[in-house]
Amino acid sequence: MKNLAAGVPHKEYLFSGHTACPGCSAVLTIRHLTKVLGRKTVFVITASCFSIIAGQPPLRTFDLNVFHCPFPSSAAVGGGLKRGLIAAGDSETQVVVLAGDGGTFDIGLQGLSAAAERNEDIIFICYDNEAYMNTGMQRSSASPFGSQSNTTPAPRIKQNPKKDIMAIIAAHAVPYAATATIAYPRDLLAKVEKAKNIKGFRFFHLMCPCPPGWGIDSDESVELSRLAVETGVFPLYETEDGERITITHRPDSLRPVEDYLLRQRRFSTMTAADRQKVRDFVSRKWRKLLAAAEATI
Amino acid sequence: MTEKIITGNQAVAQGVRLSRAQVVSAYPITPQTTVMETLAEMWAGGEFGGDFVAVESEYSALGYCVGAAYAGARAFTATSSHGLAYMHELIHWAAGARLPIVMSNANRAIGAPWCIESDQTDSLSQRDTGWLQLYCSSVQEILDSIIMAFRLAETARLPVMVNYDGFYLSHTYEAAAIPEQKEVDLFLPSPPDRPAIDLDAPENRHGLVGSEAMHRLLSVRYQATEAVLAIYEEIYREFALRFGRRWPAVEYAGPPGAQTVLVTAGGMAQTVKSFLSGPGRGEALLRIRLFRPFPADGIRKVLGAPHVARVVVIDRNVSMGVGGIFAQEVKAALQGLPKGPQVSELNVSGGLDLSPDLLARALEAQRPEGEKINWAVNLL
Q1: Nearest-by-Cβ selection for B205 from A57, A86, A88
Q2: CA distances from A208 to A64, A130, A196, A214, A221 (A)
Q3: Searching chain B, which residue's CA lies closest to the CA of residue A120?
Q4: Residue A71 gets which letter from DSSP?
Q5: Average pLDDT of the residues in B96-123
Q6: B212 touching A, CB under 8 A?
Q7: More confident residue, A296 or B50
Q8: Are A296 and A244 in contact (CB under 8 A)?
Q9: Distance of residue B117 Cα from the nearest chain A Cα, in angstroms
Q10: Which of A34, A120, A169, B100 could make an S-S bridge to B153, C-beta 3.0–4.6 Å?
Q11: Radius of gyration of chain B, Cα coordinates, nearest whole angstrom
């Protein structure tokens, strides 16, 4: 077995003993990402699981400065913080906005779009656990077709597909946008390293399985992250300037979506016909992505 | 110092320029728009040295100020009416986070229905957010107040809202003295030249706290806000010494022993003053300039004097089910006096013009039975 930790910096910027749920892949992902971001980083955290995970002041989970902000304001506060730092003589420190899928796909979308359009010099990170998990699992526009939540209870499971946030962000022609998961740590860290050295608006869409929300065991979140990639549900790729698309991990063939869907309680009331819909949707999207990557010179 | 004929909105922009604001962020709304347009022009022409961000909403405009103030930079935004209402969540946040942001607000009615006329209900709806609030009565006062507001905000570590009547002041041209940059620099310290963030001593700011910590923070902020009454006194006196213009928290104008005192805020004070200077009038004016913290002692001292028998509060705003908001605050300040004056209300909400003629009729009119408020509409 390959040593997955090879090349991962030892320095930690997230203390242990925080209040994330057991098996939380979001906190694991952010922990690794901060290792690349390093000391010259300031986080802006909006209402999300990380409002809790960051700790009750004066205690702190991050060994980096953290500023909390109201739910829809994260991109604006991040942009203002960056401009404020420059005005006060610091043009080096990276401003990193951390938001969940609610704070990115839904309540934060307007400010996010505006910051992307103005090409604000910040890194916006969406940790996507596909529902409002911090308030106890209610559907978001990132929730996939066929999933249950407390606001889409069976048999009224979600009928709309997941919003394509990467396409929305890419449509702003931002310098850099990438998907990543903790199941592919080297891919994740390489992308963060790359983003760190680009100026302008940078976006990360991180797929973060949530054990209590998805109905999986706490030791399954990394495995589910991998399955999301291998089934084509969550392809790993990056876009530059809204044009150049590079697939950074290309499975020889996609595994059946059932390998992913049937492992999770939130999909337990899907019918075979529902799963067929997902299969068609995923293969259509995958072919489209392959074509887009092919068209990139 | 140069004297120029400018509008209230241009006065705001001049004040922001002279205050060396570092980050300005705004979204257009009538009647504020020419504030941000003037600043954009100054910015493009190199006259204004700060950063200017034209954002997609008032919510983000204040969001940028919050972020910039987190970094320690001097931040400003301008708005009005619906824009102010849209910012509401962040207005609370800025005060809770003790950020010395300055915002100008051109008072305008809030819909429904759509109405762009002057009405103070927009800023008075933000009464309980913890912002310090000033109400201006002239173009000169607007310019001076922006400069004073930065000094006040940074001394008290609380945000300041500078209010003035939409159109009546925002778009009215008046002569104003524009101070020299070096004069302002002596009054207002230079903006920060290093970030307020220490990368080697990280903090977790404004994260989740429990009830006891929250209660303690609120009580500390209450005390900080009360202390502003004394800080304001000091700042306005220094401003008067340096610039020769006096802007006290409450202004009294009229004969010393007046039995009737008209109380108001904002540009209506100019009308009241000119009305009172007419032949045969013996009433006085009390203008409330500082609304938060409320200068209750100063008001009580004037209106609680034995010779004052009648007080008429003129409100261009209304709290449904209670009445004019300044009237309610004045009544509360007078509560407990052994022999207080009779307080009545004249209401011109919705932007009605307070003409001298209307004032004369209001002072003579007997209120209809059962009505505690004199609605100007009944006197037109």
Answers
A1: A57
A2: 22, 8, 21, 10, 8
A3: B53
A4: G
A5: 98
A6: no
A7: B50
A8: yes
A9: 29
A10: B100
A11: 21
Given a contact cutoff of 8 angstroms between Cβ atoms, the answer to whether B301 and B240 are in contact is no
Cβ <8 Å between A88 and B93? no
Q: Does B101 touch chain A (CB under 8 A)?
A: no
- A93 to chain B: which residues are within 8 Å by CB? 195, 197, 199
- Can you tell me whether residue B353 is helix, strand or coil? coil
- pLDDT score, position B162: 99
Report domain A25-295's class. Answer: alpha beta
What does the buried/exposed string (b/e) look like for B140-165 if buried means 16 or more CB atoms within 10 Å of the residue's CB? bbbbbbbbbbbbbbbbbebbbbbbbb
* Smallest Cα distance from A71 to chain B, Å: 9
**Residue of chain A whose alpha carbon sits nearest to that of B205:** A67
d(CA A280, CA A71): 35
Residues 28-67 of A with CB under 8 A from B: 39-40, 42, 44-45, 51-52, 54-67
Neighbours of A84 (CB within 10 A): 31
Start-to-end C-alpha separation, chain B: 43
Expressed in angstroms, the distance from the first to the final Cα of chain A is 35
Q: Tell me if B210 and A89 make a contact (CB, 8 A cut-off).
A: no
- Give the span between the Cα atoms of B51 and B176, in whole angstroms: 26
> How confident is the model at residue B365, as a pLDDT?
74
Q: Residue A206: what residue type?
A: L
| Domains of chain B and any CATH numbers | 2-197+208-241 (3.40.50.970), 250-378 (3.40.50.920)
Residue indicated by tokens 């007080």: B311
Q: Considering Cα of A61, then A63, then A69, then A72, what sign does the dihedral take?
A: negative
* A109 Cβ under 8 Å from any chain B Cβ: no
Q: For chain A, how big is the Rg over CA atoms in Å?
A: 18
Question: Cβ distance B314 to B268 under 8 Å?
Answer: yes
Q: What is the pLDDT of residues B282-301, one digit of tens each?
A: 999 999 999 999 999 999 99
What mean pLDDT do residues B210-219 have?
A: 98
* Count of C-beta atoms within a 10 Å radius of residue A190: 17
User: CB–CB of A87 and B50 under 8 A?
Assistant: yes
d(CA B333, CA B329): 6
Q: How far apart are CA B111 and CA B114, in angstroms?
A: 5
| Predicted ipTM of the assembly | 0.96
Nearest to A43 by CA among A100, A6, A80, A97: A97
Does residue B210 belong to the interface with chain A, where contact is any CB pair within 8 Å? yes
Contacts of residue A10, defined as CB under 8 A and 6 or more positions apart, other chains included, come to: none
Mean pLDDT of A100-114: 98
Please name the residue of chain A whose CA is at the shortest distance from the CA of residue B74: A84
